[in-house]
């Protein structure tokens, strides 16, 4: 699950709660959600805890389109 999907499902106030739990501003979470920025690797464990592991480090790794 990506961060945007998680926040959509988590409902009202989810971005504010996440920002507080992760230790960043709501604007930072919004930028992550929109894909305008990515969290630093030291924030990933806090994001995983805040989302109950619904969003993990793997969700922030860019996917490549590899043809076999």
Q: Please, could you describe this protein's structure?
A:
There is one protein chain. The mean pLDDT is 91. 49% of the residues lie in helices and 0% in strands. It has helices at 3-10, 14-22, 26-34, 44-50. Helix 2 crosses helix 3. It has 4 helices and no strands. It has 68 residues and is mainly alpha-helical.
What are the key terms here?
single chain; 68 residues; mainly alpha; 4 helices; globular
Proportion in helices: 40-55%
Overall geometry comes to: globular
Q: Report the total helices.
A: 4
Q: Average pLDDT across residues? A: 91
Low-pLDDT segments, ≥5 res? none
Structural class: mainly alpha
End-to-end span in angstroms?
A: 25 Å
Succession of helices and strands: HHHH
What gyration radius follows from the Cα positions, in whole Å? 12 Å
Short description:
The protein is mostly helical and 68 residues long. It has helices at residues 3-10, 14-22, 26-34, 44-50.
Strand and helix map with partners:
Blueprint: H1 3-10, H2 14-22, H3 26-34, H4 44-50
């Amino acid at each position: 699950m990506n961060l945007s999907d998680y926040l959509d499902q988590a409902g009202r106030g989810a971005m504010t709660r996440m920002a507080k739990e992760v230790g960043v501003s709501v604007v930072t979470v919004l930028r992550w959600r929109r894909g305008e920025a990515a969290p630093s690797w030291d924030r990933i464990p806090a994001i995983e805890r805040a989302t109950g592991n619904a969003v993990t480090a793997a969700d922030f790794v860019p996917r490549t389109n590899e043809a076999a």
